[in-house]
Structures are given as C-alpha cells and as structure tokens.
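Example 3.2
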Amino acid sequence: MTIALRYVVRSDVGLLREGNEDAAYAGPHLLAIADGMGGHAAGEVASAVAIKTLAPLDADTTGIDMLAVLGAAIADANAALRLITQTDPATEGMGTTVTALLWHGPDVAICHIGDSRGYLLRDGALRQITHDHTLVQSLVDEGRLTPEAAASHPQRSLVMRALQSSIPADPDLEMFESRVGDRFLLCSDGLTDVVTDETLRMTLAELTDLDAAADQLVDLAIRSGGPDNITCVLADVVDTDDGQQASLQSVIVGALTAGDDDGGSEPMRSDSPAARAHQLAQAIQQAEHGADPGIVTGPPPVPAPEPAPGAQADVFGPGEDPEDEEEEDDRPRHRSRRRRWPVVTCVLMLLVSVVGVAGYFGWRLTQSQFYVGTDRGNVVVFRGVAQSVAGMSLSTVVQRTTIPLSKLPTSEAGSIRSTIGPEASLRQALRIISQFRQDYKCAVVQADIVQWVANKPKPKPPAKHHSKAKSTKSKTPAKRTTTKPAAPAKHTAPAKHTAPATHPTPTKTSGPTKSPGTTRHTGTTKNTSTSGGPTKTSNSKTSQRQANKTAAPNKTAAHKKTNPTKKRTTGRPHSVKHVNYPPEPVLPAFCPAFTGASG
C-alpha cells in the first residue's frame, strides 16, 4: 500500500479586505497555511516569509526527524522576520500564524502556532487537530467560557501566540498517524469565524469532489459576509496501489505569489453572487473617484511547470497564451463600463426617492402643528412651523381675526411677533386667540371710558340766592305797576277842574303819615275839596271802589309777570340734567379693575 495525497488550494481576498495577507502551500509531502497580521504590507511579508521557509521541506522525508525540521524552519522564519524588522522599522510588530502538516507514508507531523486551524474528517466525523492560541480559547480551557459563547466573543481573534519578529516562536509540535480515506482541511480564521464546524462537516462529508468542496467552503464564507481573507487547503489521503490518482504538482497561493519577480498577480476573488455584488459596489466607488471602474479579475496563483491533474482548477498551464488572458480581461472591463451608468442612475434615483419621502413625511409632521402670529397687522393662526426651506414657507394662515396687534398690551404684542406655539391642535391655538380677544375688548372699553369722562359736560351748581334776588326785583316792578293803574282816578272829570283850588297842606300831611292805601283817601280828599257836604263822602266811597277794581287787575297782571321769572330761574339747572349725552360705557366682567379714568 502506497499512501499519497490528492489536494487543492483556494484563496480569496474576501469582501472587505483590499489585499490578501494569507499564504498557502500544497505539495506531495507538505501542506501549510499562514495568516499574516500587522496591517499594510507587513502581514503579507510575514506570511510569505513563513511559507517560503517551509516550502523546501516538501521533499523526501525518509530518515529525518519531521518535528525537528519543522521546528527549525519556524526558528529560521522567526530570525528572517527579525532581520526584516531591523532593516525596515515600519514593519515592527508584524507576525503570522502557521499551520503545517509534513508527511512520510502514514506518519504526519503537525506544526501549529496561532489561530489558523487544522481539521480531520474520518468516518464522517470532523475533529479539530490543532489548538487555538487565542485569549478566548484560554478562557474556554480554564472553564470560564463555553465553546458556544467563544464562537461569538468579540475578542475571539486576539492571538496570544504567533510567529513574530519581536519574540521567539513557540509552536505546538505533534505526531499522529493517518490512513486512507482521511480528509484534511487547513484553513485561516476567515473561514472558521463565519462558518460553523457543523457546516464544515456537512460540506466535507457530502461533497466527495475536492474542487467542489473547496469552492463551496469559500462561497459559504463569502455569503456570510467575507470579512477577512479566506484560504483553505483540502487534501485526501489515497492509496495509489488501488489506482487512485495523487497530486504531484506543488501549488502556492496568496501573499507569496505577489512577491514574484514577474510582478506577481492580483488577489483572487470569488465569482459567487455575493462577491460579484461587492465588486460592483467597488466599481461604483472607483468611478466616483475617477478611477478605472473595470472589475479586475486577477489570474489564479502561478503554478509549477507541470501541473498535476488535481490542481488544474487552481493554476494555469505554462502553455497558456498571455494574450488570450488579456483579451478575457478586457471583455469584463467593457461590460462593466456599459453597466456603470445604469447603476449610477439607479443609485441617484434611489437617493432622490429617499430624500423625497423623508421630506414629505417631514412636511406632514409640520402641518399637524399650529401657532399664533401676526399678518397684515392683525393676529392670525398659522398651520405649520415658522420656518422656510429653500425659500418655501412651511406655514399657512388657517384663521384670521380682527384683533389689531397695536391695540394689545406691549408684552402680548411682543410675544405674538415672536410667535406663540407650536400647539398640537387648532382648538388650542383658538383658545389662545380667545384670551387675546378678551384683552382687546377690555382695551377698547377702557379707551371709551377715558374718552367719555374727558367729554362729559359738567353741571353748574344751583344759584339759590340769585333766584331770590331776581324774584325780589320782579316784585318791585309789580308795585310800580300797581301804582300806575291808580291813574284812572285822575280821569274823573270833577278832579281836573278842582285841581287849582287844592291846598297843599292836606297833601303834605297825607303823604308821609298814611300807608300806601291812603292814596285812595287822597283821591277822595281831592273830590271833597271840590264838592262839599255828604255828597263828597259818597263820591269818595264810589271812587274808592272803582280804584280797587282797577288795582285788582293790575295786581293780577303783575303777579302773572313775576311767575314766568321764577320759572326761568328755577328751570335752568333742570334743563342741563336732561341733555342728550350717551351713558357711561360698562367694563365687561372678565376685564380687570380699571382705575385709569376719574371725574
């Protein structure tokens, strides 16, 4: 029985990385994988140095200590990294993980440091044959963390041991025995971080074809997000005596191929739907920055001169025409250019739609609010907000009032000018307006009261003494009128003829001594002096009666003349009180007490 290996290698840059820091090697006696770390070009350098140092071990291992040579190779890689760091200080801190399997017949030597993994599928069961040198795995070993929790722990990629330039390397070295039918998998954490062990088992167990199984593993990682470089080496242990075909050609992929003298090759990318979507997004981003938007699909890693049958999917033969390859590269570029403008147009339309929908819902939100402001000098209610976007106002007048802003108190007018609100409903805004309307009515009534008091006529005080004096004066003419009517006594004919014979003595004695009624007697005296005896006495009585009759109408007339005078003096104040003047305005009950008017 002759034991040999049939193997394939796959390496993909992933969806988030710009370069590939993984490196892998597969040969008839050696399988190795390295996952660089350190950022920029340092991770690529570390993984390439590790694989380049291990590659010479892929030879006849008869009679050698495989663990010793693996350990020596790791030490040489450690020294080479230290020398690079001393030459270029920018690479300080770089390092890499290493997982290698060295065969001699059924015997296998394992060399492992870091968090890359080695798996063995035997009889349908998958077993991890390496131990992660990470912080999370140390917590699991101590019983402080379960394996399920470790799978999603945020610090699961924190490596505690690795091949670095600053410290000596301390790899795990182990021997075990393989058998025909075993399937080995070496992979970087870009695969195991996003694909579970159970999924790995099902894929390796169900897909017997190595190429199909390797492609499926990479595609699973890409569909899970592809956050890191994805590299895997898949090998079956076969018996060539049973006619099973083994791989004879060595394959190198990843970071080591980028440092070849011919300029290396672009990192290989998967052709899965997820990978194509990522490449399209990158093309759009490059087009926005003015770069060539063509999708560059680099050729697979450069193989050895005579590729083995199992490695045909991974490498190009030496007789392949480079011009044909360039023509194949040009066709995707032209297709990507034709697809660029529809994609950019769709993206722009999507952005415009998002902005339009956001603007519409924002406008609807503002139109559910109300506030109180001023327009054309009056108080009004607005719908919306007191803002404008691109010269377009976000508010409209929903209700106008007849309340002039100038009639309101200064404090309230200032509040309205700076807007009051927003209010959640029109009813709340109208409630504020009703308060301003009451204040406006109070201000109007107060102004009317002030004007009424200022224009109110003041009544004259009653002049009682003057009325009495006027009545007294009116009586004096009455007496004069009563004396004047006594003149008819002179119309008696006898009196005129006897006037020259009248003696002055009776007149002098009767004037000052007798009362005003003696005037009548004076008339009789005159008659008496004219005629003598009893006839004089009867004539005097008759003339007295006639004088009394004449005096009576005169007194009545004098009384009538004095009465109108009394009415005029007493009627003047009465006429002032009945002047047609409006009543005093009444302040509404909801107005505060007003003390600004007096009088």
